[in-house]
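Example record used in the benchmark description.
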Amino acid sequence: MEERIFDMIITFLILKLTFESILNECNRLASEQQSREQLRELKSRLIQVQLDYEKGLIDKETYSQEESRILKELSRGIGGGN
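Model output (structure tokens):
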């Protein structure tokens, strides 16, 4: 009887570790996906600022400020500063 309980405890611990590993991998993949989406959004904003400047919708100072702000966010994202 004790051996059966011991086997059940070992099985439980193995299943628990397996589940935790799977959960950690899912969280890692979700984090990577979120980072890719944020990067895509920042690149899109940068392109929009460039287009607005080319169309004359914003002046050079505004363009420079926005470009600088977006590039800082991009470098933080790429550098792992999130």
